[in-house]
Every structure is written in structure tokens, then in C-alpha cells.
Write a structure and sequence with these properties.
single chain; alpha+beta; Alpha-Beta Plaits; 5 strands; about 30% strand
Length: about 140
């Protein structure tokens, strides 16, 4: 019986400590609790936004080829415009026909701005593409300025 109680107390203590750690990790990982850049000595991290483009909810519908070509032309023009403004740093499709269609990496101060810019994309507004937005950190001047 003592062994049983001892084992239960160890399991309870372990569960409590892992819950506290998870809550702490969740608090640290929230973008609103972080600065846009973090500098430690010579190493400076900067937050960007990684966008995973996905198949949209209207992708299964039959769409006219000419209409899709027009959407693609406007989609590329929108990317060019956002890149010229310095908002999109990386854009490109994947080479397979999976659910994930491509990526963007945005340099914007907020996720709200990223989502507003995504809504200007004709492929997204037509439902041909969907998206997921994730805050993403990398060393400043390592990959991007």
C-alpha cells in the first residue's frame, strides 16, 4: 500500500511540474509577449511571418482555364508589388501537387497586417488558395537584413 501511495505521489508531482512547464512554454511562445527583435551580444533575432499557402476551399470546383490564368497573372503581380514594398521576402510554389501549395515569408510588424495583405491576393480571395500564418524567427543579417 505504501508503494502504491508513493507511486501516486510521484506521478502527481510529475504531472504538476510538466503542466507548469507547458504553461510557461505557452506564455513564452505567444508573439504578443515578444519584441519584434531580440538582441543578445552580436546575435540578433528578428520576427517574420511564415505563410503556408494551402489548397483553397473552392479549388475542387471546375474553373475556366482562362479565368485561372488571369488569377495567376494577378497573383504574381500582387507578389511583385508586395516584394517591391519590402513586405514579402520569399515567395514560391512547391513542386508537387500536395495540400501545401507554396510559401511566403513576410516582414511586417503584426500578423494582422500580414492577413490584410494576404486578402489582397486574387488567388486567396477567389478561394483557390488558403493559408496558415505562423510567427517565425531567424537571425538578423543571417538570411534577411
Amino acid at each position: 500500500m505504501r508503494q502504491y501511495i508513493f507511486l501516486l505521489s510521484i506521478l502527481f508531482a510529475t504531472a504538476c511540474s510538466s503542466t507548469e512547464k507547458s504553461e510557461e512554454q505557452n506564455t513564452v511562445a505567444k508573439p504578443e509577449n515578444q519584441k519584434h527583435t531580440i538582441k543578445e551580444g552580436e546575435y540578433e533575432l528578428k520576427q517574420y511571418y511564415f505563410v503556408m499557402l494551402t489548397k483553397g476551399n473552392k479549388r475542387t470546383e471546375d474553373m475556366d482555364t482562362a479565368y485561372l490564368n488571369d488569377l495567376q497573372t494577378k497573383h504574381l503581380a500582387n507578389i511583385d508589388s508586395l516584394a517591391a514594398e519590402g513586405k514579402i521576402l520569399v515567395a514560391g510554389p512547391f513542386g508537387d501537387d500536395g495540400f501545401w501549395r507554396g510559401i511566403f515569408i513576410f516582414d511586417c510588424p503584426t500578423q494582422q497586417e500580414v492577413e490584410q495583405l494576404l486578402d489582397t491576393d486574387p488567388m486567396i480571395s477567389a478561394g483557390w488558395l488558403g493559408y496558415e500564418v505562423h510567427p517565425w524567427w531567424t537571425a538578423k543579417n543571417d538570411v534577411f537584413k
